């Protein structure tokens, strides 16, 4: 699923009567939600409540010609459960993929 967050904020600005919701002057904000069925199954089978951490999400911010991708690590949600190992694996895979993007820091 892909959401154009900045467009949604701008659309709600007038409806909610909240002035300047984009005070940071971002030029683009996108949200991406995705799920890997293999990881979901592993989470479900190890600690069913931890399956809630899948789907995964990324938020992409653009400002002044710079793009920043934010990924909330799943281990933060599964600590001290039997799903810790799987959450660590998910985080490793996602972070490695993000670092493989040309120009990533």
From TrEMBL:
DUF302 domain ranges (all copies): 26-71
InterPro entries in alphabetical order: DUF302, TT1751-like_sf
Pfam families from the xrefs?
DUF302 (PF03625)
N-terminal signal peptide: none
Protein name in UniProt: DUF302 domain-containing protein
Please name the source species: Acidithiobacillus caldus (strain ATCC 51756 / DSM 8584 / KU)
């Amino acid at each position: 699923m892909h959401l154009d967050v900045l467009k949604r904020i701008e659309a709600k600005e007038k409806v909610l009567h909240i002035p300047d919701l984009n005070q940071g002057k971002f030029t683009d904000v996108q949200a991406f939600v995705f799920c890997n069925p293999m990881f979901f199954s592993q989470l479900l089978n190890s600690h069913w409540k931890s399956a809630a951490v899948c789907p995964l999400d990324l938020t992409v911010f653009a400002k002044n010609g710079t793009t920043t991708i934010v990924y909330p690590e799943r281990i933060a949600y599964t600590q001290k459960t039997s799903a810790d190992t799987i959450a660590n694996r998910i985080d490793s895979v996602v972070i490695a993929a993000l670092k493989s993007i040309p120009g990533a820091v």
